[in-house]
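Hypothesis: this fold can be encoded by more than one sequence.
Test: take the structure tokens below, design a sequence, compare later.
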């Protein structure tokens, strides 16, 4: 399921994750639309967090670490709030929408 962004086809794995990270906002919009998500500012905050974590650690956080990290800028966030944003699984779906490769194992570090 490759995504086409600005006329360029991006390579994905079997689950629709990009093979190589792409940090453009256009990629986020295309993948979010494919996932059936209408992005809000909260989505973008989580996406920026996931991208920062990937840049810093070379992988994305698992759900527990994600929740802890998100609480730094969204203190009232809980599991339910993250599942409302990313109903297919916050750690994995947020990574996909952020234009990042598939998380390792059960969802990163």
């Amino acid at each position: 399921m490759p995504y086409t962004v600005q006329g360029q086809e991006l390579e994905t794995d079997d689950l629709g994750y990009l093979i190589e990270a792409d940090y453009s906002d256009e990629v986020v919009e295309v993948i979010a639309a494919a996932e059936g998500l209408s992005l809000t500012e909260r989505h973008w905050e989580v996406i920026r967090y996931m991208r920062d974590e990937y840049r810093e650690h070379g992988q994305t956080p698992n759900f527990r670490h994600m929740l802890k990290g998100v609480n730094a800028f969204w203190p009232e966030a809980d599991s339910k709030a993250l599942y409302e944003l990313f109903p297919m699984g916050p750690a994995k779906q947020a990574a996909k929408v952020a234009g990042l490769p598939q998380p390792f194992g059960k969802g990163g570090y």
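The chain has a mean pLDDT of 94. The first strand starts at residue 3 and ends at 5.
Hypothesis status: open.
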